[in-house]
Write a structure and sequence with these properties.
Blueprint: E1 4-11, E2 16-25, E3 28-38, H1 45-63, E4 67-71, H2 79-98, E5 102-106, H3 108-115, H4 123-133, H5 142-168
Parallel strand pairs: 1-4, 4-5
Antiparallel strand pairs: 1-2, 2-3
Helix pairs in contact: 1-2, 3-5, 4-5
């Protein structure tokens, strides 16, 4: 088998940021850890962002991923919600950059297509497929399942990219 590649997937959100870590060895994926980072709506924005950054930096330091896969923002009808999501995404990108990690960003529909096979799959379908692909995960929070799905999507793309590069070599 080849080297093990550790991937951190993130489902950004200001109130709840899902995270999930997987290892990829060849075509085999295995669950490492997952969870949800939270920030209190009672705090001012700057304090919430600082709290998320500190928590995410600790996850990165503990699990030492080689790459981070972040779900891109979708166009929301509520501009305020879209702005809050943008702030949370910025924290994810900043933490990754500070750790010197490669960052991949994927549209939600791309992640769902990679994991479920349907780009407009519901959260329940994503959860079922994540549990099937990573049976030891025991994931219950939709945010964490979405983050693991982002990591899985990156693993699939990284595997495809490696096969293309090998064929061209």
């Amino acid at each position: 088998m080849g080297a093990t590649i550790r991937i951190l997937g993130l489902d950004p959100g200001l109130g709840r940021m899902g995270w999930g870590v997987i290892d990829m060895e060849g075509t085999r994926l295995s669950h490492v850890a997952h969870g949800v980072l939270t920030s209190s709506a009672k705090l001012e924005l700057a304090s919430r962002l600082m709290a998320l950054h500190g928590l995410l930096a600790a996850i990165i330091a503990e699990h030492r991923p080689m790459a981070i896969s972040v779900e891109q923002a979708f166009v929301a009808k509520d501009p305020s919600a879209a702005l809050k999501l943008g702030h949370a995404r910025a924290i994810a990108l900043l933490a990754a950059a500070q750790a010197g990690l490669d960052v991949a960003e994927y549209a939600p529909n791309h992640i769902k297509k990679c994991v479920v096979g349907v780009g407009h799959a519901g959260k329940e379908q994503v959860m079922v497929m994540v549990k099937r692909l990573l049976p030891t995960a025991r994931v219950e929070a939709a945010d964490a399942a979405d983050a693991l799905a982002a990591a899985i999507a990156h693993a699939h793309l990284a595997g495809t990219r490696a096969k293309i590069m090998a064929a061209l070599a």
